[in-house]
Amino acid sequence: MAEKTADAKASLPRHIEELERTHTNIDVIETTQESPYGEVNFIGTYIAVMLACCASFAGFIMPVTSLQLIERDLGVSPNAIWIALGWILLSAVSFILLGRLSDIFGRRWFFTGCTVSALIGSIIGATAQQTEVLIAASVFLGLGSAGQLSFNYSLGELVPMRHRFAVNGFIFLATLPFSGLGPYLARLMIIETSAGWRGIYYLVIGLNAASTVCWVLCYHPPAFQNLHRNRTVRDELRELDIGGILLYVAGFFLFLLGLAWGGTVHPWSSAYVLAPLLIGVFVLVVFVLYETFMNLRRPLIPMHLFRNLDFVIVNILSAVGGVVYYTANTIFPIMVASLYTADPIEGGLVASCVGAGVCAGQFIGSWIAVPGGQMRLKLVFSAVGLCAFVAGLAGATDSKAAGSALAVCGGLMVGLLEVIVSTVVTIVIDDQSEIGTAAGVFGSIRAAAGVLATAIYSSVLLNKLTEHTESDVVPAVLAAGLPPSSLMPFLAALVHGRHSSSPRNPRRFPCRHRSWSRRVDGSVRESLPNRLARDSRFWPTRGVCFLFHDEYR
């Protein structure tokens, strides 16, 4: 038995030979080497995580990608963009708070509370009578999503380190119907069922309710008294970094709000964008200085994390991955609606290619990460493949089959990379008592990178499309016979990806209608490839990072 234990520890990465080392003398950590897979509590916890993760993806992807269909019932609202922004902002801000506070006070009720928050949000969404109520639902859903998506450490700390990759595999597989096929299933549910769009929220209610029951009955991680030596809850509350929490929440929220508004809700030069953006950056700088130079026993983000080169590299890799993932999920549906098909159900299925590929890559990557070692080479291979597939997708404007295949393959490479870095971030840290904090920083940085990329690329795409529309489409369709009174409805339909059905009487001018469509297609073809091609420019950054990334066998 002693030999097996020695062999097990010898096979672990060299930086965690002292598994129970902490940065303080008041914390306790015990990294398990036992397999809990036959225990009822672990099985119940696994089911809770699986259901919660599915609910999180379903509660965001399905309504957001079907917003135009939902607005047909509730009415068009200028505030509809906040359904997505509310979820993203609350989710991004919550990752660090959840990770740090659950490291200190214990995870059980934080993670249960996150799913309860999502349950409340789904109930609000199911009963909404106007778009603004759906925004409130998204706030609760986004707040809960931080716990629902943090299974890389809620599960990871319950199993041996070498099993952390594989234990995530079936979670990713279970989320395929929602994170992968969510747009398709949402449209199918809205069009083909009597419940309509409310059926989405009914589904999320069921998932969240079942997950909550499993959390309460089966999730029993170390309680507060097992996490610290001779400490009380009052002691921890007294030393809680309230100043850091306030600075972080205010700065990060304002920064993300400015990014989210830029180029979409308001012009980048608008005070509505510049004010929160600049104030947010200033407050975040103050936050970093506060965390660095104040003598805090419990800083919100321990700055020694960033002295760990592996941790920094993993976060850079994740940020670049977030840029590509969020950008692809933003641009590819526009590409589908504008160039491939006007049918909402078929368009939803084709638009699901990126998400489905990511899910497949995450599932495969969780099982191939450890066997054979050479993790660095696996990452390099995936990065090179992704660069090639994204570049190919930029040119696939004429073939739906080629575009779909390249989107799946590109998503597959993203999934392979993301599952490795999201698990490695829980391993490279020197102090396993800070696993939640490290994973929270990781999640928030990735979300911020995604918001940044989405804002910039959406703005650039819109500006480019506007440029081509003004210089090419408008003169052409007017010259081809489109009445000036129909120009604005035609352009509005173009913005929503419905040019193939505009104007509503194509039979009166069949030849002209085809000419208009060709002009619009040409405008989109001129705009989209440049945006996708720029995605591939981020991958040399990953390649450089791989050179500095330690090999884990």
UniProtKB/TrEMBL annotation:
Which residues does UniProt call coiled coil? none
Name where it's found: Membrane
> Which residues belong to any copy of the Major facilitator superfamily (MFS) profile domain?
44-487
Q: Which UniProt keywords apply?
A: Membrane, Transmembrane, Transmembrane helix, Transport
Q: Name one GO cellular component term.
A: plasma membrane
**PROSITE patterns in the record, alphabetically?**
MFS, SUGAR_TRANSPORT_1
State the species of origin: Cercospora zeae-maydis SCOH1-5
What protein name is recorded for this chain? Major facilitator superfamily (MFS) profile domain-containing protein
